Amino acid sequence: MIMERFDVDAVRAFEMLAKISQDSNTPVATVATRVVERGPDRRP
Length: 44
Description:
By secondary structure, this protein is mainly alpha-helical. It has three helices and no strands.
């Protein structure tokens, strides 16, 4: 979803997830789950 939403490759999408994870002190898996739960029309 992040790759499509932001037009980035897989490496950049993971970097984005990792940055959000670090900034919020939240596991990457939890951040990814929240992105999916919010659906395709919402930003992370």
